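Example S7 (structure tokens).
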């Protein structure tokens, strides 16, 4: 596959003095080592004057991050989930990979991810919480328990009509609160299950979110232990505290 037909997308707001934008920039730099010819996009909600915060992006677009009032006390991430759906539908490249700011590419095997799109329509890893009902949201009917939630912080997909319809349906269900879920992964699970898309589930080392160090981690999504991977001989303070508590 020609990686020039691929977009890598981040959607992050200005909150925290643009700390999530800076984190996304660091993530983009890590992925560029393995997927250098893709076009890197950032969608954000304010103009960014400090260009060092966005040095890795080919294009930065300012968009609306507002969200419905009923989401006020939910996991809307400052409107990121609403903006994400819109951004995913705007891009024109043949293959798109949406990434959360806290992802970090670590191994050469990341370069093989676009090859999946020669056989499949969409690829994600399982979410750590397989079916999230802990916040009081209802179980979604018509989806078997053995088809759990997928983590929507890494979504690799072909920009075809099947996926575009999936995103439209996903967005509509989320914005209308069809399933009463505080996070967008519940509606996503429903619509992927009821689609005709060829789904590939990534192995956990391509979206690793735990705290224990794994030598095979290809993509880490845990900002709290990133330093352990970048400086394996220098254990982070968090790791030292956890080890002391467990000893």
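Recovered sequence:
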């Amino acid at each position: 596959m020609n990686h020039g037909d691929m977009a890598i997308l981040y959607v992050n707001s200005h909150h925290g003095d643009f700390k999530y934008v800076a984190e996304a920039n660091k993530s983009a730099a890590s992925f560029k080592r393995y997927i250098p010819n893709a076009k890197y996009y950032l969608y954000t909600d304010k103009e960014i004057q400090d260009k060092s915060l966005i040095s890795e992006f080919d294009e930065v677009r300012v968009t609306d991050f507002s969200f419905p009032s009923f989401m006020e006390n939910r996991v809307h991430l400052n409107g990121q989930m609403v903006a994400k759906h819109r951004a995913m539908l705007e891009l024109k490249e043949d293959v798109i990979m949406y990434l959360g700011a806290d992802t970090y590419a670590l191994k050469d095997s990341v370069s093989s991810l676009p090859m999946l799109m020669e056989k499949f329509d969409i690829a994600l890893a399982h979410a750590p919480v397989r079916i999230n009902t802990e916040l009081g949201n209802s179980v979604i009917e018509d989806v078997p328990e053995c088809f759990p939630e997928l983590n929507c912080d890494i979504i690799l997909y072909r920009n075809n009509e099947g996926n575009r319809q999936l995103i439209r349906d996903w967005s509509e269900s989320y914005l209308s609160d069809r399933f009463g879920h505080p996070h967008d992964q519940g509606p996503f699970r429903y619509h992927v299950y009821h689609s005709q898309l060829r789904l590939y589930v990534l192995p956990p080392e391509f979206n690793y979110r735990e705290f224990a160090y794994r030598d095979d981690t290809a993509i880490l999504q845990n900002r709290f232990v990133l330093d352990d991977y970048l400086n394996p001989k220098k254990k982070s303070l968090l790791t030292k505290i956890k080890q002391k508590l467990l000893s």
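Notes on this example. The CA atoms of residues 161 and 167 lie 10 Å apart.
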